[in-house]
Amino acid sequence: AEVSKLFLATNTSGSIKNAVVHLPLDNNMNDISGNGLHATPGATASTSYEFINDPERGSVVHFKAGSYATLPTHDLLRPSGTQDFSINFWTKQDNAIGSDPVIIGNSSWDSGSNPGWLLATDGADAYLPNDPANSKHGWTINISNNDRTRMDWDADQMENGQMAPNLADGTWHMVTM
Questions:
Q1: Rounded average pLDDT over 51-76
Q2: Is the pLDDT of residue 76 over 70?
Q3: DSSP letter at 172?
Q4: What is the pTM of this model?
Q5: 99 vs 60: CA distance, rounded Å
Q6: Backbone φ/ψ region at 160: left (φ over 0), alpha (ψ -120 to 50), beta
Q7: Are strands 69-70 and 19-23 parallel, antiparallel or unpaired?
Q8: Are 60 and 4 in contact (CB under 8 A)?
Q9: Alpha carbons 36 and 23: distance in angstroms, whole number
Q10: pLDDT of 12 above 50
């Protein structure tokens, strides 16, 4: 998967000036928000990432299969169950990975009730947005608070008769949650 421009804000203004984390992901994993919450390669990643030049987005990070990055453990990255926050990033996946690997999150996905939030693909290898009767979820957002109260939003839930796009279709998608 390729990722470009990650923003995480714990306010409702939506302003990049108030971002907790701002990772341009154009030639390094450094946070330019002023908070110093730099991403690092995942400790158990089986391969690595590289910065490539994408014809559409310019310089982006490309995560090879089995690779990932982590952000430091910090209270700014763990909004409470009553605090507003938003996450915005660009992603491009050429192939569906199947099952439900996390694209971005701060929760252990060993259980959907573990505290935190995440966005994961969910059966994306069988996701057919134009065929709701035969479609899997495609992707899901999971949020759980400290008392393990869980909320899920699945991409197969139709609003206005349309399903969410497949994130693993080889095109760039801006994701905001």
A1: 85
A2: yes
A3: -
A4: 0.78
A5: 25
A6: left
A7: unpaired
A8: yes
A9: 10
A10: no
